[in-house]
Amino acid sequence: MALPPDTNSASTGSDKNDKAAARKAAQQDVFVREVDDALRQDQMESFLKGKGLALAALIVIVLAGFGGWLYWNHHQNTLREEHAEAYIQALDSVQAGNLDDAKAKLQALSGEDAKGNAVPAKLMLAAIAQEQDDVAGAAKIYEGVAADEAAPKPLRDLATVRLVAARFDEMKPQDVVDRLKPLAAPGNAWFGVAAEMVGMAYLKMDKPDQAGPLFAEIAKDKNASEGQRSRARQLAAVLGVDAVPDVVDARGEAIEDTESTSEPEAAPKGAKAQAADSGETAAE
Predict the structure, then answer these.
(1) In this predicted structure, what is the pLDDT of residue 94?
(2) Which class in CATH covers the domain with range 54-170?
(3) Three-class SS string for the chain?
(4) Which side of the chain, N or C, has fewer Cβ within a 10 Å radius?
(5) Confidence (pTM)
(6) Residue 26 has pLDDT above 70, yes or no
(7) Is 183 within 8 Å of 157 (Cβ atoms)?
(8) How is the chain split into domains, by residue range?
(9) How far is the C-alpha of 137 from the C-alpha of 163, rounded, in Å?
């Protein structure tokens, strides 16, 4: 009787072969990883030997630059705080009437290092010069600020207005018009004072037809001061221009003013006499 094949022995042999193959594959994987790690290490060492110094130098430069920027930024913030405090102290001196002390503080701020406070400091110095009857000195400062393209435009415009006001009597009327006409437009921040001086210059040039409508615009400008509107209203009336704002109802329709149809009182002065008075006021 034949014996059946020994399946257990065959199975055991197959398992041993599989385990041996798995061990061999694992050993090969470990070997490959070791070789790969060694290769990477060699490549890194070669890179560091070749370019390590340059890379280290670059890192040092970047860190040094960042540290320098932090220091510079802190230094600038400190300077701005110091300049702002000095400017406030100068304003306090002006209010106290100590103009010489204010000038000393403002002159220190008016240099290039003061930056943001330099232009306001110069304008304050010019105002102090005018207060001390140094019109030429004030005009020189105003001229410098007006011509400084790096200065903020609103401050440049202010310097232009103050310059013309300080030199109004000695300037030619056409020069006044040329200098201020860009600012003498409704809606401009300096419309009231600039338009008033332009209107006075027109009267000096015997151009009432251009002065009258301009005074009427000032009289109707809500942003102009009450004094400016009052003077402009009187001058416009003398020149025969209606400068009384229209009164409207809730629907925005004009309300007829029955009193306005009456004959206006005769002006106490002629147009040129009124112009002379207002010109002095505007120039101040």
Answers:
(1) 78
(2) mainly alpha
(3) CCCCCCHHHHHHHHHHHHHHHHHHHHHHHHHHHHHHHHHHHHHHHHHHHHHHHHHHHHHHHHHHHHHHHHHHHHHHHHHHHHHHHHHHHHHHHHHCCCHHHHHHHHHHHCCHHHHHHHHHHHHHHHHHHHHCCCHHHHHHHHHHHHCCCCCCHHHHHHHHHHHHHHHHHHCCHHHHHHHHCCCCCCCCCCHHHHHHHHHHHHHHCCCHHHHHHHHHHHHHCCCCCHHHHHHHHHHHHHCCCCCCCCCECCCCCECCCHHHHCCCCCCCCCHHHHHHHHHHHHHC
(4) N
(5) 0.60
(6) no
(7) yes
(8) 54-170, 172-247+266-284
(9) 11
93 contacts 105 by C-beta, under 8 angstroms: yes
Q: What is the pLDDT of residues 246-276, one digit of tens each?
A: 554 555 454 554 444 444 444 444 444 445 4
Tell which residue, 213, 178, 186, 211, has the closest CA to residue 279: 211
CB 255 within 8 A of CB 249: yes
Which tokens sit at 257?
């003013």
